[in-house]
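ok so for the tutorial part 2 we go from a plain amino acid sequence to predicted structure tokens. step 1 is just haveing the sequence, like this:
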Amino acid sequence: MNVCEYKPGLEGIPAAQSSISYVDGKQGILEYRGIRIEELAVKSTFLETAYLLIWGELPNKEELETFENEIRYHRRIKYRIRDMMKCFPETGHPMDALQASAAALGLFYSKRALDNPAYIREAAVRLLAKIPTMVAAFQLMRKGNDAVKPNDELDYAANFLYMLNEREPDPLAARIFDICLTLHAEHTINASTFSAMVTASTLTDPYAVVASAVGTLAGPLHGGANEEVITMLEEIGSVENVRPYLDRCFEEKSKIMGFGHRVYKVKDPRATILQELAEQLFEKFGRDQYYDIAIEMERVVEERLGEKGIYANVDFYSGLVYRKLGIPTDLFTPVFAIARVAGWLAHWKEQLGENRIFRPTQIYRGRRDASYTPIKERM
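step 2 — the prediction. this is what the tokens look like for a chain of 379 residues:
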């Protein structure tokens, strides 16, 4: 068998065929099941979008109501999972807590019937419903407080914000958060989705699939980048410091968080929508000083690097929006995970349809035919 040309990070090498999402990086197009992200952000909700991603079609009114009711019913988590989370160190990162908690769900729902549509639906509902509850619970419990029970009167996005502080959110804030979840729900075969697909290909349970994806998303080169953006903006401190900071980055050839994308060579369409959402929040709740820094950063980076196809990506503005919604910085990536569960489940379900375990090859670069050296003769 001929070995293909080696591409670090498998860049540009197809790993699967999929009908879930489509990206055109040169034109800045993102579609879920053929529908542009701009249209879904305006007209849809996160749960309706999740249904579209997982089952392939937009639900009718009855299907959507049934799905929403199932999600609402399964929001609560077992008390033993809460007890386990109380034992996590307070200094632990919420992504590590989420990965452990997601994996633990598999202990309580250990039945594995991957050829049963009812099982697949039940698992998808449980993960979509319980992941937000676990994120909010750890946030409160690491401060020594009891977890807030889900509020069945609130929709998906509003309920999560409620569980963070036991206060019903402003309707605009809840709607904007719901749009954020829609924007982050899916993005073809990125690192965490590929991790989910590889895990799914072994025919393990869906809770392990999501846990593996959460672990991959946690890295600063993937989901963790939105936290790094806020840290960067805080370090810059003022609009006047933007150009000197960027000049230093250009000189040292260091990475500028929130800019550049392996796919997009224009501004990420999700970043454009997130910037609009940030402006809506600031208009109603007051302007954030870091937004002015971000605007100047984007202007200077585009001026210097635009011709190289480096523009703002989804991480650049998402942190500013989450910050204004009162979400702690180290919860930004878990919030990303809450949304991306929909995409991971869609790929899990698609993988099961024509499954073959992933087994890539390698290009060996080590020694051959080496002899064993007895320990007494080793220097």
